[in-house]
């Protein structure tokens, strides 16, 4: 099954993708995670995009499309995929239509106040990308990753100025994709205000 997870920053796309990929038996492909891995490994691509991610702006379409095209050619993506955070612009959506046929686009719907609460309380393990929330999903020991024991960090783009910018960028560049995909008849709205296990159950029900 070929799925896109569409929605504002902080709606829980990554959190649900991590549990949905096992339920659906397809890889979770997050463009944000791919960029962050490149930054961590100090690749040429990583150096090019580091400041853009920290500010909360979008990486140019050409760079992003090329990276996704390459990733979708890997073996594991031949049985399907969950694309998380791509496409984020109309040119990216047009490029994806040339590469692959989508079964559904999941629109993550969440109240703006809850989005800000989720983003400002998010903490991540830098080496694994595992995600926590200081109150909704805290680690066993405050500030420490449950599995690796490493200290948790706050993403640069989860600081207040960058959150504000990301939400503006989402409204301007990405929100138009909701109508783009609704017009194609493949958009599924998903209320993301509940607990992750309930959201996953609702998603699987809607996909059936
Ligand atoms: P990316 O990493 O995709 O960031 P994003 O879209 O801003 O999304 P987030 O990861 O912030 O939110 P999420 O929806 O995954 O929420 P999460 O599950 O973590 O992109 C980062 C950057 O990369 C972009 O700004 C851009 O620069 C670049 N980029 C990426 N893709 C690009 C593209 N296609 N084109 C151009 N540039 C691109 O959850 C958030 C918090 O809420 C966590 O703390 C979590 O624990 C908590 N939480 C989640 N679900 C629940 C729940 N149900 N109940 C309570 N708490 C919850
Ligand atoms: Mg994410």
Could you explain the architecture of this structure?
By secondary structure, the chain is α/β, with parallel strands linked by helices. The protein has a single domain (2-207), classed as Rossmann fold, CATH 3.40.50. Helix content is 48%, strand content 15%. The chain has 9 helices and 8 strands. It has helices spanning 13-24, 31-40, 44-55, 61-72, 90-99, 112-120, 160-174, 176-183, 196-207; strands spanning 2-6, 28-30, 81-84, 104-109, 122-125, 131-133, 152-153, 187-191. A 5-stranded parallel sheet has the order 2-3-1-4-8, sandwiched between helices. It has a 3-stranded antiparallel sheet with strand order 6-5-7. The longest helix is centred in the last third of the chain and has 15 residues, at 160-174. The chain is globular, with a radius of gyration of 16 Å. BIS(adenosine)-5'-pentaphosphate binds at residues 9-15, 30-32, 35, 52-53, 56-59, 64, 85-88, 92, 118, 121-122, 131-133, 136-137, 157, 166, 195-196, 199.
Labels describing this entry:
208 residues; alpha/beta; Rossmann fold; 5-stranded parallel sheet; 9 helices; 15% strand; globular; binds BIS(adenosine)-5'-pentaphosphate; binds magnesium ion
Write a brief structural summary.
This protein has 208 residues and is an alpha/beta fold. 48% of the residues lie in helices and 15% in strands. The model has no long low-confidence stretch (mean pLDDT 97).
List the helices and strands and how they pair.
Blueprint: E1 2-6, H1 13-24, E2 28-30, H2 31-40, H3 44-55, H4 61-72, E3 81-84, H5 90-99, E4 104-109, H6 112-120, E5 122-125, E6 131-133, E7 152-153, H7 160-174, H8 176-183, E8 187-191, H9 196-207
Parallel strand pairs: 1-3, 1-4, 2-3, 4-8
Antiparallel strand pairs: 5-6, 5-7
Helix pairs in contact: 1-9, 2-3, 4-5
The chain binds BIS(adenosine)-5'-pentaphosphate and magnesium ion.
